[in-house]
Amino acid sequence: MERLQKVIAQAGVASRRKAEQLITAGMVQVNGRTVTELGTKVSEKDEISVNGIPIDKELPVYFLFYKPVGVISSVTDDRERTTVVDFFKHVPQRIFPVGRLDYDTSGAILLTNDGELANRLMHPRFEIDKTYIARINPIPKAEQLKKLATGIELEDGMTAEAKVRLVASDSEKGTASVQITIHEGRNRQVRRMFSALHLHVRKLKRERYGFLSLTGLHPGDSRTLKPHEVKTLYHLANRENQG
């Protein structure tokens, strides 16, 4: 038996918080009867509808995807550009990306139909570490790297502490590769952090999402997460949200 709002969230219909609002608003039916009490438990045999539309009790699936540059991190796009979901047409479940990765940034992004896990990973109180490699110019000075690590004042506030490391530099070309790990999820944050220091990002790749790396994958490739990886993601999110 599972709580009704959790089942709705896991079906990808809405986040758990939104599912609770749907229940209290009288928009959820169980076996044809409207249920408004939060905490109601249901089984796999129960028929659940939201606004009269039955929800699909899909088996949860989890993918790590190497997003190429020029692909939208959404389910659909009103300009008919390629989205991350277009690479999963063979998957029968209704999957969606967890969070965003910029159009002009490549790298690791999760896709799932597990609304519960996605909602937890994107919760304001918990942003999983994300590690990027940025190819920039000019070559950053030591004090600039220190500022990136301790915090940059952006238009939407000071950034949190980050881990920053100079990976390589080319004095002839005036370029460098910098590894930076952040745990926030602001829009285009990494690019804006470098830009604030007058450093131009020529190429940006998210090489790790938490403990998940792109090892063995090429742009456009994906792999199914292993059960222990899913369990670890839930453990991390649960630990933070219960803190």
UniProtKB/TrEMBL annotation:
Domain annotation RNA-binding S4: ranges: 2-65
EC number: 5.4.99.-
First-tier enzyme category under EC: isomerase
GO biological process: enzyme-directed rRNA pseudouridine synthesis
Domain of life: Bacteria
Keywords: Isomerase, RNA-binding
GO molecular function, one term: rRNA pseudouridine synthase activity
Keyword RNA-binding: yes
Coiled coil region boundaries: none
Isomerase is among the record's keywords: yes
PROSITE patterns: PSI_RSU, S4
InterPro entries found in the cross-reference section: PsdUridine_s_RsuA/RluB/E/F_cat, PsdUridine_synth_cat_dom_sf, PsdUridine_synth_RsuA/RluA, PsdUridine_synth_RsuA/RluB/E/F, PsdUridine_synth_RsuA/RluB_CS, RsuA_PseudoU_synthase, S4_RNA-bd, S4_RNA-bd_sf
GO cellular component, one term: cytosol
Family per record: Belongs to the pseudouridine synthase RsuA family.
Protein name: Pseudouridine synthase
Organism: Sporolactobacillus shoreae
